[in-house]
Amino acid sequence: MKISENYINSKKHIKTKSYITLVKSSLLSLVICFCGTVLANDKLELDQAFSKFSKHIKAGELKVGLPYGQKVYQLSQKLFDDSHPSRIAAAENYGFILKQLGKSSEAEVVFLDLLKQKENKFGHYAKELITVLADLSELALTEDTTTRYRQRYEKLYLRHHSSEFVSQLTSTNLKTDPFAGEVKARLIKRLDADIKVHETPHWTLLMVGSSNKYATETGEMLEKIYKSMLSFRIALDIPPPKLKQKMVAVYFETFEQNRSFNRQKIKKYKSGMVDVASSYSNRQVFLSRSTSISMPKWYPSAYLPLNLSKKADAPPQWQVIQATGRYITWNSGLARKTQGKSPWLYWALFSSFFHSDSSKEFGPHTDNYASGSIEQIKKTIAKHSAPSVRIIVAPTDSWRQEGKRTTQFDPVLLRYMYTYYPEQLAKFFIDSSSMNTNGKNPTLRARFEDAFGDIEQHEAPFSKFLQALIKDADIKLKT
């Protein structure tokens, strides 16, 4: 069941007033920007109609003002292009009055016209559509029609206000996973260092030696990463699993200490299985059959291993974000469904959480991205030109042999898909683990096209999206 069904419709999780309060009033404004072809008498007629409409609405005389609102709306259709500000304002005013007067069928026609204008101007998933969809969902229409409008409104509201729902999925009374005690005992036995325990609402941090001085800072960082990842899943309407116990992280003093400890056998696992992060309910991950925690480079362990930078003057933020993102998405089931299936999506999932402002929410569903990453992309484009979507999805041997990189473009492609194809992206995450059926082994391009359509149709829009992102990053770096 989708989040929009679980958490908005169910009073058990969210009270209606807690997720939205619409305070709608007539706009009583019109952006009058006439082009040269508008005749003087047309302008005069519009001005007069709007003046009378505004006068009656301010006096609370909705019925008297209605014909003038209709006149303004009809003239706006004649005088302005679709999506023109005056055209939109006229439709909003007229539709609102019709709704207030209980003329639901007539209001629906106007609001659908308004919806089309806003879709053309802002996009199918833009936040500017929320109010008109809310209006449509409140009209007295057939149950099926009202439900259809309401569901789209709720999903769009979730998409643009996902952070409001994170608190309903977090916990304040989680217990420490017993596994943390086992790891601590092994650390004490194997390492000649003092081990301190630092607790946060969702993490148990085992701080080795000098790393303890960064316990508070690291704990806050891990909490922000976890909450931002919850928000991303909510925005995509993919329900995240609930934690049963706290997640476990170990902060080593050096990478060598980290690697040495992880090579040692910690615990025997029957048939190579472990309830990783027993913290997550109903989640299991394969560990190596050697009964050791030592695993392939990309494979997350049963706890989150971190280590200080060489200078040991601060936690290495990017390393913490990437490692934590990998650990959470893998153990919660999201990344495991893409690993080995579509590499671009797997790597994009972690690197999309790099950001510029740690005081704000971050992730591919926000505009808080790492401007430095975009600077690196600019250098790559200047040297090699930007790779096509086809190359990002399925890099060719010749591309690799020339030493060109595509991974830095992966998070941009993820942002593009989230912006324009969020429903397909969510389905791709969910379905990717079952794409290989009946003995078939589709190519990376075929997997992509099954989800998002012909890859060639994305080339020009993606290039435009990339250039807009670069321009936006340039502006941010200057301010």
The parts where pLDDT drops under 50 for at least 5 residues are 7-37, 265-300
Average pLDDT rating: 79
Topology, number of strands:
6
Name given to the CATH architecture of the largest domain: 3-Layer(aba) Sandwich
Q: Gyration radius, to the nearest Å?
A: 27 Å
Q: How many structural domains does the protein architecture include?
A: 3
**Spatial strand arrangement across the major sheet:** 1-2-3-6
The tally of helices reads: 20
Give the strand content. 5-15%
Instruction: Assign a percent range to the helix content.
Output: 40-55%
Q: Which structural class do the helices and strands define?
A: mainly alpha
Order of helices and strands: HHHHHHHHHEEHEHEEEHHHHHHHHH
Could you tell me the CATH topology label of the largest domain: Glutaredoxin
What is the straight-line distance between the termini?
43 Å
What is the highest CATH level, the class of the largest domain? Answer: Alpha Beta
